[in-house]
Amino acid sequence: MRTCGPKGFCEWMVGAAVFGWLLAGGPTLTNAEAGLAEGLPATRLGEGLSGNVEIPTLGTGDGRIIYCVYSNNTRSIWIQSTRDAGRSWSRPVQVMELPGPRYITDANILVDGQRLTVFATHVLDLPGKSGRFARSVFQVAVSEDGGASWSKPRPMPLDRNYVVGCIHAPVWLDGDTVVMGYSWDVPAQQQKPAAAEGGMYLKSGVLISHDRGRTWTPGTDVEVKKHPIGADEPALVRLRNGDLFMIVRTTHPRPYETRSRDGGVTWDTPRPSRFFGYNSPSALLRLQDGAIVRAWDNSPTDRFPLVVSLSTDDCRTWTPPRMVTEPDLRPDGSLSYLQACYPSLAQAADGTILLAWWQMTRDRKSTVHCVRLTRRWIEETRDWPEPTRIVAFGDSVTRGVRPGVREYQTFRYLLQRKLCDRGWRVEVINAGIGGDNTARALTRLDRDVLSV
Fold first, then answer.
1. What CATH number does the domain containing 443 carry?
2. Phi, psi of 342, deg, nearest 5
3. Residues whose CB is less than 8 angstroms from the CB of residue 441 and which lie 6 or more positions away in sequence, other chains included
4. Are the CB atoms for 45 and 68 separated by under 8 Å?
């Protein structure tokens, strides 16, 4: 939900009669960075690289140096670093190239003093299975000198045919133990690889290392059975009591959450999150003071808006989300950009929180952006009044979501954006049901409108 200023107004129930007023006029895009929250100028990483830069991961040890790794054109992995909490960044340095057909992406980094370990997913083509998701490996490159030089990448030995989802910096436990989220595909393991991502069925979990990231073994799986793609791209954070909290991407309107009480060996039954987050990964970070930051795309259908929230009770409750970036709506109804997703978080030694993400322009060029945040900025939403709730009540015209219509083109979304842009803090709820008539609508009036 787009975060608006804390200005209230009387309760409304709105119908489609005001739709013409709603569409009159609209914000005008001026540049690719439009849509950022006020006071949050973004730094673009990967400057000087041609083509697409995508899927960043931030990593740090003590916060004095923060690294960012990402893919360039899915043919190479690059790294940059900042020593001043994100105010400036080093030039990009190549970590590894694509070692063979097909593509390499999803970079990740483990920081252990001067020793840096970068992981990336290499998707291969197999004879007779060209173009299918039959085989992938995690390529691993190591630097012993803080990134000045890199070893030749080598594949991580795992008993899985197709591994993915290793997109978040590993989490340190006690001593030499570190855990890293990953996913693997069941059809590929059964020698029945999918031809498209929609045909994959993934399970998630963690890889566990007891030797500071040199060797890895998997824990048990996290499975979300009723969603087509399963459980993918897990985000992890360690809680105060040592438990692990995980959020997994699903093709449900909401991600799923679970906890482990034994360092990732076993997991509770995953349950849907209270937040939206359709088919897009989240990010988690434990701050120096023990609070936890979460970043995700808070939408049931799209990879925007990108928001952040804070928990001070080990992920049981969260502050109201605060918007970092959301595309502007152009006068012709199009968006100023297509998506802002795959967030990554890190904290600098001075307490500054860095948030990086993958953004796709209207012409489908991929870029990586990074902003500097503070804990206070994130949790200011605690002091804002509850948003006024508006119920859009009607039939398929109100519901809006159908083939050819995206959620951001619906009456609910457009009304909320228009009122937010005028400074009102509102939440518009879509209570339209296709095929409804007056008699049927009256039977659900108490449930869907008056009880909200």
1. 3.40.50.1110
2. 50, 60
3. 393, 394, 395, 433
4. yes
- Distance between CA atoms of residues 60 and 109, nearest Å: 9
Q: Select from 113, 115, 101 the least CA-distant residue to 149.
A: 115
pLDDT in tens, 303-318: 999 999 999 999 999 9
Residue with tokens 């600098």: 348
CA distance 305 to 34: 13
Tell me the backbone φ, ψ of residue 220, rounded to 5 degrees.
-75, 165
Q: Are 61 and 23 in the same domain?
A: no
Cis amide leading into 305 (omega within 30): yes
Pairing of strands 388-394, 13-14: parallel
What would the two tokens of residue 290 be? 């023990």
- 178 occurs within a structural domain: yes
Total domains, the chain: 2
Q: One-letter amino acid identity for 184?
A: W
Query: Domain range for residue 285?
Result: 43-383
Domain boundary pick from 383, 407, 441: 383
Point out which residues pair with 117 in neighbouring strands.
110, 142
Query: For residue 35, is it within any domain?
Result: no
φ/ψ of residue 448, rounded to 5: -95, -15
Q: Which of 75, 61, 62, 135 is nearest to 105 (CA)?
A: 75
User: Which residue is listed with tokens 């997109």?
Assistant: 167
Contact (Cβ atoms closer than 8 angstroms) between residue 367 and residue 44: yes
Instruction: Tell me, yes or no, whether 36 lies in a domain.
Output: no
pLDDT in tens, 293-347: 999 999 988 999 999 999 999 999 999 999 999 999 888 888 999 999 999 999 9
Per the structure block, which two tokens stand in for 442?
């009256």
Distance CA 310, CA 113 (A): 28
3-state secondary structure 139-161: EEEEECCCCCCCCCCEECCCCCC
**What is residue 249's three-state secondary structure?**
strand
pLDDT for 69-95, tens place per residue? 999 999 999 999 999 999 999 999 999
Tokens coding 415 = 């009304």
Cβ atoms 296, 356 nearer than 8 A: no
For residues 259, 261, 266, 270, the Cα torsion angle rounded to the nearest 10 degrees is: -20
Burial class of residue 393, CB neighbours in 10 A (0-12, 13-18, 19+): buried
User: Are 49 and 149 contained in the same domain?
Assistant: yes
Q: Which residues contact 328 (CB under 8 A, 6 or more apart)?
A: 27, 28, 29, 34, 35, 335, 336
Q: What is the pTM of this model?
A: 0.89
Q: How confident is the model at residue 200 (pLDDT cuts 50, 70, 90)?
A: very high
Q: Rounded to an integer, what distance in angstroms lies between the CA atom of residue 283 and that of residue 345?
A: 7
